[in-house]
Amino acid sequence: MVALFLAAMLQWAALLAVCPTLHELIHHDADDEHHDCAVTLFLAGQVEQAFNEPIALGQSPPVELLLDRTYGTVVFGSFFLSRCILEHAPPLVR
What we know:
mainly alpha; single chain; 33% helix; elongated
């Protein structure tokens, strides 16, 4: 919703920059040399990206790595080999 609103405002500023008579209908002092608005900044090429500094709330807590811990391994046999399915051959079909 915000992106659509910002895109519409950019289109509106571009429309007012192209059509000075429409700009004068919106701002009656549009022909004044001291008039500053988004349209005059757009026409002058002074539209720049705002610089945002990163927000730092303090030092981040240390992260504990669990890579140095060793765990005892338990070996289990194969489940299928313990079921005795390989003990007998298939029945003989004649």
